[in-house]
Amino acid sequence: MPEDAPFVRLEGLTKRFGGFTAVEAVDLEIRRGELFCLLGGSGCGKSTLLRMLAGFETPSAGRILIEGRDIGAVPPHARDTNMMFQSYALFPHMSVERNVGYGLRRAGLPRRETAARVAEMLDLVQMSHLARRRPDSLSGGQRQRVALARALARRPKLLLLDEPLGALDRKLREETQLELVKIQQGLGITFVVVTHDQEEAMILGDRLGIMREGRIVQVGTPHEIYEYPRSRFVADFIGTVNLLDGTIAEDAATHARIACPEAGIDIVVDHAVTGARGAAVAVALRPEKIAISRDPLPHDNRVAGRVADIVYNGNLSVFHVTLDTGRRLRVARANAVRAEDAPLAPGDRVHLGWSGSASVVVAP
Amino acid sequence: MKRATPLAIVTAAGFAFLYAPILSLVIYSFNDSRLVTVWGGFSTRWYGALLNDRQILDAAWISLQVGVAAATLATVIGTLAAYALTRHGRFRGRTLLGGIVTAPLVMPEVIVGLSLLLLFVALEDLAGWPAGRGFTTLVIAHATFGAAFAAVVIQARIGSLDRAIEEAAQDLGARPLRVFVDVTLPGLAPALVSAWLLAFTLSLDDVVIASFVSGPGASTLPMVIFSKVRLGVSPEVNALATLVILVVSLAIGLAAWATARRG
Fold first, then answer.
1. Smallest Cβ distance to B170: which of A76, A87, A151?
2. What is the complex's ipTM, to 2 decimals?
3. Strands across the sheet containing A316-323
4. CA dihedral sign of residues A156, A159, A165, A166
5. Predicted confidence pLDDT, tens digits, chain B (263 residues)
6. Which of the residues A74, A90, A106 would you substitute to probe the B interface, choosing the one with the greatest number of B C-beta atoms within 10 Å?
7. Measuring CA to CA, how many Å separate A165 from each of A147, A151, B125?
8. Which residue in A353, A341, A342 sits closest to A285, CA to CA?
9. Cα-flanking dihedrals φ and ψ of residue B199, to 5°?
10. CB distance A245 to A364 below 8 Å
11. Which fold, A240-362?
């Protein structure tokens, strides 16, 4: 099988609970060995989708193919997938090593091999020293590691992770994210991670699938999703964004102009747009792509306004600027120097500017 | 440091109300006098007399056998009922089953006893089993209401078990029965112990239902005590009651311990 051929393929996958449609006609391809993140708000159907991959939910319609084989009718215990549960779901009456070895014993692996594999897995997650402990005597981070080791022990073709880092505190989460990526790359197992945390998805995922109301609205690399969102929802969901409503004033092969009364200018973008003249669109503009200065700026797009508020975030500052039209824009600037000679203050008159390549035109 | 507050006095009065009769019974079981209400000095003679009373010993043995058999049967039935009620969604007849399972909890014992007796008689006429009233009918009757209590205790426990743990076992290659044995049962163990002990205690305690469904040669301990007391209270009965209290307290204590161990 070639490297790029889809490893997992979902075709029109749908799940209905009574009258409620949790997952609707999802078509998706996941490549071998990649770390795919399903990202969405609560109730968007991402967990249901994962549970269908694991076999805990039966699809109402559509197919799940792994390496071309339809696994829709295969019960969970016979699938080559393993799952790491959000609650970790460790067996409370078994020690750490018995937890990790459970799947191997069910697979009928000889005792010697089981012990060796358990030791290898515990070593991988750095839990060897606590092998004989019971789960209730472990910290949250340690339980998370055991759960990961247990899910990996059977060497599944596909590992499903439901909010794997959701229960950890921020500091530990950041460390664990990188470690998870390292383990995934080291083993070469395909991971599907469900998360509601967009920052986490950006850090973990080779590719992301953004879900909304049971549908996948965009699939792409973190970079594609962030820089080229295809809809207002995706632009708004990932990171912070200024969304300016307007209509198409001019659409040429190399550029387009969007009449934007909110900003008081025609916004120039350096790519063609799809849509007729006069069609309503929205311009998505990331705060860090806008320049801010007391003096007029040379950019394609220029507006002016007054600083209303400054949020100091340490590494960067976010300026809330009220334009002359009354519209507020968020502008982010890296705090490159420790102390500015004449720092901007609320009430200061400022000029904002951004180039034609800074913004993306999305559906309204 | 601590003074007798009104709360403490009320508490003490409450305990006295509950336990003074039992305490006096225990004290009088060590009475040397033949007259139950007159203290004649300390003695254990009634315990000795008890050991030579064939009728009481036989009844105690029957009670014990019935209790063990009925409690075991009740726990099995109760577990299955509780599992069906909590884990099988909204199947047809779920409400009916829930009602039937808990009915013996609220049904007057006289009615349970009478209806069981009528059932056993009818069954014997139609199917020839159970032949006559005795040990078998006692076990069936006690298992019936014991199962109701067992189901309630176990249902609460299943409700508090994390569903994901069973799914994890399944995900790791365990078939449904294997999941039940490996993960569900250990999780239920404390509730199973409580349920069994509860059903056992209830069986040991019952006199009303037993009077209906038992036959000659299968008198349980409470039945024997009851008939003895009707002829006049003998200090021997005090000694016997003290022993029963001891056994029941141990069972309850054990049940509480089992429940607390994995709360």
1. A76
2. 0.84
3. A291-293, A349-354, A301-312, A316-323, A328-334
4. negative
5. 456 688 999 999 999 999 998 898 888 888 888 877 788 888 888 888 888 888 888 998 999 999 999 999 999 999 999 988 888 777 888 888 888 888 888 889 999 999 999 999 999 999 888 888 889 999 999 999 899 999 999 999 988 888 999 999 999 999 999 999 999 999 998 899 889 998 998 998 899 999 999 988 889 988 988 888 887 777 888 888 888 888 888 888 887 887 776 54
6. A106
7. 11, 15, 67
8. A353
9. -65, -40
10. yes
11. OB fold (Dihydrolipoamide Acetyltransferase, E2P) (2.40.50)
Fold of A8-233: Rossmann fold (3.40.50)
Q: Dihedral of the CA atoms A200, A204, A207, A209 (nearest 10)? A: -30
Cα dist. B205→A198, B62, B108 in Å?
Answer: 62, 13, 15
Asked if the Cβ–Cβ distance from B164 to A87 is below 8 Å, we say: yes
Q: Domains of chain B by range and CATH?
A: 16-52+235-263 (no CATH), 61-232 (1.10.3720.10)
- pTM as predicted: 0.81
Q: Please indicate if any CB of chain A lies within 8 Å of the CB of B162.
A: yes
Residues of B in contact with A76 (CB under 8 A): 167, 170-171
The beta-carbon neighbor of A77 closest among B164, B165, B174 is B174
